[in-house]
Amino acid sequence: MRVLVLGAGALGGYFGGRLAEAGTAEVAFMVRPARRAVLHRDGLRIESPFGAWEGRVATLTAAEAKPGWDVILLSCKAYDLEDAIGAIRPAVDARTAVLPVLNGLSHLDRLAAEFGAARLLGGLAKIQATLAPDGTVRQLNDWRWLTFGERDGAMSDRVRALEAAFAPARGVVAQAVPDVMARMWEKLVHLGTSAIGTVLMRANVGEIVRSPGGGAFLLRLLERNLAIAAAAGHPVRDGFLDEYRAVFGDPRSAYATSMLRDLESGARIEADHILGFLLERARRAGLPDELHEAAYLHAKAYEQRRDAGRLPAC
Ligand SMILES: NC(=O)C1=CN([C@@H]2O[C@H](COP(=O)(O)OP(=O)(O)OC[C@H]3O[C@@H](n4cnc5c(N)ncnc54)[C@H](OP(=O)(O)O)[C@@H]3O)[C@@H](O)[C@H]2O)C=CC1
Ligand SMILES: CC(C)(CO)C(=O)C(=O)O
Predict the structure, then answer these.
(1) Predicted confidence (pLDDT) per residue in 165-191, tens digit
(2) b/e per residue 61-82 (b: at least 16 CB within 10 A)
(3) Ligand 1 pocket check for 99: Cβ under 6 Å
């Protein structure tokens, strides 16, 4: 199996690196020149509770893209989607499945329009990882789930083959599922709650829960996001609520989101793709929207300040 990973950031670097380490697929990374220079100089370095890895990896730039890939794992941020589509376009052919692992949902319509619905898989990652300033990919806790599937629910040869390729990879639980759209909505309920909570409060889950009313605030957010998913035709599975009530009720939790990490380091954030999407869905369903509105406004005001160069020094 030949797998092209677009982006060697937190997710692309982690999952692509683990697959390269396992040696069960031919893996290459499509990267931009600055990242390529670091990978050429240092190799790909992963730090993880499941063991560090360092290795030389194949890289190519958009100008060098050629067809012949079974899977393209798309791991850019949503604000880079158009650029990434342009970069992978010459690499996509009749046999290629495109597997995006971005958070959110709205990228799916765009990718299906570009590459055809039949080529596009659904996918999500439950992991906490970051690309450190020195180029190291750092996994921050033991979350390690990569979930994907055909959007029509078929358990096709291609999703089974990808699951098999990942099976020996350490620090990864990769699963092909027959209900990937439901899983993506569940991920959005989870992320919507943690991202809105941590970004609005500029604090991790434990810090919020230990503050007066913080636990109730997170649970109210969780319920609002559950209602948004249900109104969109995707009620969560049994057990989901109990699992995430515990996640969002733990006073000792150090759980923070990639959006909070990005915001605290002055980076770009996926405000429209995640927060704007949820706000629009709350309004469309006639649900209370003031928490989503505040989070979206907060993120957009941050973008204004960032664009104007007025963020405090990090
Ligand atoms: N980090 C996390 O813990 C989690 C993140 N997610 C989601 O996964 C997605 C990816 O996030 P994450 O991995 O953190 O992001 P990162 O910013 O760490 O990595 C994205 C990478 O994509 C690269 N990229 C973007 N456009 C192109 C292009 N045209 N050609 C080549 N490379 C490109 C960037 O390269 P360059 O360096 O050149 O800018 C960057 O290194 C997001 O939607 C995020 O919300 C989901 C679960 C957890
Ligand atoms: C919700 C979480 C932590 C789970 O993977 C995530 O997706 C993120 O931080 O972007």
Answers:
(1) 999 999 999 999 999 999 999 999 999
(2) ebeebeeebbbbbbbbbbebbe
(3) no
